[in-house]
């Protein structure tokens, strides 16, 4: 008799949320490939709950033929996590990306064959002789190792992408990548809890269905949280990196800039680029990118990036936002009474949050505090005493 109690009901909530969001993600228009990979990841996490939902509800007693139904496919979790991060922040998937899914596919095919073609008594014999003592621990260790390895590489991709944003976008603050950091943190937490239960099961004592309930409750909560966050971020498009063609020497810039000598003097070149950037006020463009600045200077992004980083010791994002902050500070010091946000927008910022963060970073105080200090400094002595 099938009966949903507390255990099976709690896990069912997580599974249904995972399946539901997966269906929604498959049908999104933005980030289609990345969202479909994420939908597959959520589906795998939700499917892992199904055997325990069935077991706690008495399904295996009512329908013993469900044994070996290939619901649990943990070898796919790590690769799908990695492929999602790579595709979300890049133009393409890695070459021969499908190789990453081969172990999980083999696992599925073997278990499906046992489920579909092997009689139930033989299945039970295989469980006692091979599956429980050998195969299941190997799959668990492989899945945990894969999740750790792929998670680490996904973190490296994220860090490289964050650096690329700093080097190429002046409005980098619009892309905080909070969702990806939360995703990796949740998966890391899940791996730690999973690994703890695996250690107990393999080295201390075998865990029963009911002993493992806390872990699957954590996984249900993770599937629920990831589903909600994934849907909220499904339409957010991240700037994608492109491969820049190699250019040996920069062309003459539009503004007067000293030509790079053999073995470029990056300090002199950086000073010239900064002078042109300041004089032409290109920093007022809220959509200014490294590519666009290189076009203004009639050179290539490699030279601009090296001149700023190696020559001036600051990245593109820092260089541009310092100029914007200086312009805002000059306006405030001159006694401007305009709204702070309007001043910030006129100087190239396109969000209040990015403006506030950059101003505090480079001036050491909030814009409001800076304006108050400027007013006090400009006030006549008599007014200051009053």
> Strand percentage, roughly?
under 5%
Write down the overall geometry.
Answer: elongated
Oligomer: single chain
Mean pLDDT: 87
Give the N-terminus to C-terminus distance in angstroms: 85 Å
User: Which structural class fits the helix and strand makeup?
Assistant: mainly alpha
Total DSSP E strands: 0
Task: Please write the string of helix (H) and strand (E) elements.
Answer: HHHHHHHHHHHHHHHH
What's the tally of helices? 16
The helix content, as a percent range, equals 55-70%
What value does the Rg take, in angstroms?
28 Å
In this structure, how is the largest beta sheet organized?
none
Uncertain regions spanning at least 5 consecutive residues = 243-252
Q: How is this fold's topology laid out?
A:
Layout: H1 6-26, H2 32-56, H3 59-62, H4 77-89, H5 102-117, H6 120-168, H7 178-204, H8 213-232, H9 266-280, H10 290-296, H11 301-312, H12 316-333, H13 340-346, H14 352-363, H15 367-378, H16 381-385
Key terms for this structure?
16 helices, mainly alpha, 386 residues
What does this structure look like?
The chain is mainly alpha-helical. Helix content is 68%, strand content 0%. The protein is built from 16 helices and no strands. The protein has helices at residues 6-26, 32-56, 59-62, 77-89, 102-117, 120-168, 178-204, 213-232, 266-280, 290-296, 301-312, 316-333, 340-346, 352-363, 367-378, 381-385. Helix 4 (77-89) packs parallel to helix 6 (120-168), helix 7 (178-204) runs antiparallel to helix 8 and helix 9 (266-280) crosses helix 11. The protein is elongated, with a radius of gyration of 28 Å. The model is unreliable at 243-252 (pLDDT under 50).
């Amino acid at each position: 008799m099938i009966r949903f109690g507390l255990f099976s009901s709690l896990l069912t909530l997580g599974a249904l949320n995972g399946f539901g969001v997966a269906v929604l993600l498959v049908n999104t228009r933005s980030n289609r490939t990345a969202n479909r990979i994420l939908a597959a990841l959520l589906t795998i996490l939700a499917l892992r709950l199904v055997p325990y939902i069935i077991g706690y509800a008495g399904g295996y007693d009512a329908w013993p033929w469900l044994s070996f139904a290939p619901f649990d496919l943990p070898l796919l979790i790590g690769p799908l996590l990695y492929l999602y991060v790579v595709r979300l922040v890049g133009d393409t998937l890695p070459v021969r990306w499908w190789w990453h899914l081969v172990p999980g596919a083999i696992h599925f095919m073997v278990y499906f064959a046992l489920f579909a073609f092997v009689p139930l008594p033989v299945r039970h014999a295989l469980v006692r002789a091979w599956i429980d003592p050998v195969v299941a621990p190997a799959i668990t260790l492989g899945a945990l190792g894969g999740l750790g390895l792929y998670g680490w590489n996904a973190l490296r991709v994220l860090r490289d992408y964050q650096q690329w944003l700093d080097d190429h976008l002046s409005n980098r603050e619009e892309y905080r990548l909070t969702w990806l950091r939360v995703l990796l943190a949740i998966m890391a937490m899940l791996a730690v809890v999973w690994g703890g239960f695996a250690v107990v099961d393999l080295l201390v004592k075998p865990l029963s269905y009911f002993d493992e309930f806390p872990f699957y409750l954590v996984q249900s909560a993770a599937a629920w949280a990831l589903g909600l966050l994934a849907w909220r971020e499904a339409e957010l498009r991240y700037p994608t990196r492109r491969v820049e063609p190699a250019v040996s020497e920069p062309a003459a810039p539009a503004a007067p800039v000293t030509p790079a000598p053999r073995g470029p003097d990056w300090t002199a070149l950086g000073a010239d680029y900064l002078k042109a950037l300041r004089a032409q006020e290109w920093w007022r463009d809220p959509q200014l990118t490294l590519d666009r600045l290189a076009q203004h200077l009639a050179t290539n992004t490699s030279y601009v990036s090296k001149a700023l980083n190696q020559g001036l010791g600051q990245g593109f994002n820092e260089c541009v936002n310092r100029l914007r902050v200086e312009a805002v500070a000059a306006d405030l010091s001159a006694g401007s009474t305009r709204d702070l946000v309007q001043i910030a927008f006129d100087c190239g910022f396109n969000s209040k949050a990015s403006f506030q963060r950059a101003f505090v970073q480079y001036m050491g105080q909030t814009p409001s505090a800076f304006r108050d200090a400027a007013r006090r400094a400009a006030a006549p002595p008599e007014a200051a005493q009053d």
